Amino acid sequence: MMAALSGLGNYELTCDQTVAAYTGIDTLAASGFTCTVEPSRPCFATTITIRATNGANYQPPIPEFTATVKTFTQTPRPNMLQWSHEQQPEHAPPSNTAFVGAGSIIGLASTRDALWIFCTDGLFRLSGDGGQWRIDQLDTTLVLSAPQCAAVLRDSVYAYTNRGLVRIADDGFDELSDLTIGDRLVGPAYVETAALIVERDETFDEIHVIDTGVSGGPPVQYLYATVYKAWSKLGFPTVTALAYQRIPTNPATQASGWMVIGQSPLGGVLPQYALFDQNAAAVNLTAVAAYQPFYADDPMLLKHWIDGTWIFAAADATRTIDSIWNGVADGQTTLTAWLNGDARASFGVARRAAIAPALSPGVLITGGGVFTGPICKGLSVRFQPLTEQQAYR
Phi and psi of 390, rounded to 5°? Predict the structure, then answer.
């Protein structure tokens, strides 16, 4: 079904529960499982037909529900805001309107004291109260990359734009991917697509930037940890569909997913990757996780990187992982269970990456077989600072 839909355009999938594995349509139907498939934006109409109860109370009047419908021709106003009277959501008179910039509104995000408006001609802020509104243009060049590329976390807006991922708040905005992964995470020009998504994870204070193929390469998910100000990247070799399920209906099974689900709220598990296959039970995808370069306090200090230890959950013992240094795989080993309740594997840093101010470690996790996804708890890296004389020698 997914292959057929993919040829027709972008579709949004909504599931009402999380299941541990695909066991057949009949089984899912018996459990009350519902999955809706609906076209993503754009879905514009040039005309609309209306009728209503108490239609005479509308301005202009609307035919009664039992009468013939009336057709209205749509007048596009792509940069107009309209608001209703207080406590009267159905009453929005023509006087309660305002225009934002000269382009089109392509995205909105609200925080405690402001409505942030992303337009094709920049970023605007709506502030005020009780119908007394003020609209200010904050930036003339910042443009959202897609309609779903903004999310609010801790009263700040995180948006994927033509200048990468930015944080927007009352105290200004920061370009978070600048000087770190800016060369790889500069957002494309605005496009009406559901294949670029920004989501928030309130449990771990993380921002997820998901590209399911707009950039032309394989699907990729970037994670930004707002607490540690650190980036990591997760890659997939093949994806049937990608959905981020913020709050699963059944938290008891939230360590699993339906189709491909990146999730981490509620129970504290890291994103899971599962391949939905209508001809077989769901299995894990092979995934590559790569940290962006880190400097260990001083970005200018030359270092001798010695080794790194990957720390996984105890249940991941005997799973095989591959070590990656600066984007190149260097070896493979099996995670070993430790007495302190986790599973670990250590790798020496390859000579080509060992002497450098920064290091970019990564790990390839082979998929298949077991449905429950691996849980990576962390990475420990050892290094020795080098003096200029040692580096010369």
Answer: -65, -40
Mention every residue, 6+ apart, whose C-beta is less than 8 A from residue 288: 233, 234, 235, 324, 362, 363, 364, 365
Answer for the pair 359, 293: CB distance below 8 angstroms, yes or no.
yes
Q: Are 356 and 381 in contact (CB under 8 A)?
A: no
CA geometry: angle 259, 261, 262, nearest 5 deg: 160
DSSP class of residue 187 equals P
pLDDT digits (tens, 9 = 90+) for 280-317: 444 566 778 888 788 877 878 889 999 999 999 898 89
Q: What are phi and psi of 15, to 5 degrees?
A: -115, 145
Reading phi first (left if > 0) and then psi (alpha if -120 to 50, else beta), residue 154 is in left
Name the pairing type of β-strands 220-225 and 230-235. Answer: antiparallel
Provide the token pair at 15. 């599931």
**Nearest to residue 127, comparing CAs of 146, 154, 160, 100?**
100
Question: Does residue 284 contact residue 368 with C-beta atoms inside 8 Å?
Answer: yes
> Which residue numbers in the chain have pLDDT < 50?
1-11, 19-29, 39, 43, 238-282
At 393, list the tokens: 């020698």
- What is the spatial distance between Cα 46 and Cα 55, in angstroms, rounded to a whole number? 22
67-120 pLDDT per residue, tens: 888 887 777 889 998 888 888 877 888 888 889 999 999 999 999 999 999 999
pLDDT of residue 233: 78
pLDDT the model gives residue 26: 47
Query: The tokens of 99 are what?
Result: 């225009």
Note whether 287 and 271 are within 8 A (CB). no
How is residue 269 annotated by DSSP?
A: P
